[in-house]
């Protein structure tokens, strides 16, 4: 019989699907609530407090949606590849499940970044889409996410799906620095970064609004991934005793 | 070790010679795809000249994708692949040999054939030369990256379409710099940077992909 309470604080304790499942369940409402609050605050600053941009007018306000989505799309890919690599190297099932759970959220963020970018490009550049290095590499990122999802979906054996997906995810990481530096390496239409560690070239309220929105996206991503990973755990471990007991308890309620 | 490498290449070339149709079909596909483009968009010489590098490169990409399943599928079906995985010789070397053989029967004929298209699309001597060099540097990269995709999707249902879905995004840099080199030559800009980058891709791929293919094959066969 396995123990169901942690003896003391130990990160490895939660590396098993059985112990992680209830923890994730407890964390989800917190992250979801934070996501809602931060989104409301962020959007309030974005649309009501932040000043109108001197050159781009009101249309610049889409960056409050666009930039955090683009950040998350790259960041989530790296996190996904990290968990996939951990799963491949140490054969830990939960890490691979995390990678699988992150992929759809990452793809969603990438799509959102491309979509809002198109809507912003129309009034600013006069075109929904240009074949600029930043846009093209972001589009490739979407293809990489979709390829990862498609590969895992095509393989019936979950362990093989985990490992094959991991190899693909690791290869794709090469694309992330290309996206990030594309505006520097190729002098193209997409504007350079306004925010960096050294400081930012934006008005403070704009920056605060954007950072709050980025945090909101972050919280949303964590909540969504945790919900998804819980489902994956139940699906994969459906033959384990603890899942049967859990399901039996839930149905009795 | 070198002997293993040479033997793998010899074996795959011998198999290719015995099944000529497979090899010739890839080349024929390449020729047909390039040929239908002028029929589709009209015989305007200036337009054709400007799109020729892109058309030839996209056709080369598609031909490479089409020929990928042959890389491991037959060996997987008759059990040879398992013996290769069990072999005491380094797997990376065997994989590299297979990729080289694959390039010799697909990439190399395409590269040679592209000279004809240089003439057919009325490219200058220098542009044709750059196109041939860019294909000679780029098509081995296609074989090497493609080998990873073929190994990952080995024995899966719908493997062919899936392979192209995985591999095409990874082919994009090669495509951009390959056709970019010819485009630069056409506008009399220095094209050496493009070719140098293609050469860098090739070296990078030779070092990394055989190792990744080895991992992918072990995952697929275990």
Write up this protein.
- The complex is a heterodimer of chains A (253) and B (222).
- Chain A is mostly helical and 253 residues long.
- In chain A, strands 1-2 form a two-stranded antiparallel sheet.
- Chain A has helices at 17-49, 63-90, 93-125, 133-154, 158-172, 175-185, 204-236, 241-252; strands at residues 195-196, 199-200.
- In chain B, helix 1 (2-18) runs parallel beside helix 6 (91-105), helix 8 packs antiparallel against helix 9 (159-186) and helix 9 (159-186) runs antiparallel to helix 10.
- With 222 residues, chain B is an all-alpha fold.
- The mean pLDDT of chain B is 91.
- Classes of the chains: A mainly alpha (253), B mainly alpha (222).
- Chain A binds chain B through residues 136, 140, 143-144, 146-147, 150-151, 154-155, 160, 163-164, 167-168, 171-172, and chain B through 148, 152-153, 156-159, 162, 165-166, 168-170, 172, 212, 215-216, 219-220, 222.
Give the topology, please.
The complex is a heterodimer of chains A (253) and B (222).
Chain A: H1 17-49, H2 63-90, H3 93-125, H4 133-154, H5 158-172, H6 175-185, E1 195-196, E2 199-200, H7 204-236, H8 241-252
Antiparallel strand pairs in A: 1-2
Helix pairs in contact in A: 1-7, 2-3, 2-5, 2-7, 3-4, 3-5, 3-7, 4-5, 4-6
Chain B: H1 2-18, H2 20-41, H3 45-67, H4 73-78, H5 80-86, H6 91-105, H7 107-120, H8 125-152, H9 159-186, H10 192-221
Helix content of chain A: over 70%
What is the total domain count of chain B? 1
Number of DSSP helical runs of chain A: 8
Low-confidence stretches of chain A: none
Give the class-level CATH name of chain A: Mainly Alpha
Total beta strand runs of chain B: 0
Oligomerization: heterodimer
Order of helices and strands of chain A: HHHHHHEEHH
Mean pLDDT of chain B: 91
End-to-end separation of chain B in angstroms reads: 25 Å
* Global structural class of chain A: mainly alpha
Mean pLDDT of chain A: 86
How large, in whole angstroms, is the Cα Rg of chain A?
Answer: 21 Å
The profile of the biggest β sheet of chain A is:
2 strands, antiparallel
Taking the alpha carbons of the first and last residues of chain A, their distance comes to 24 Å
Secondary structure class of chain B reads mainly alpha
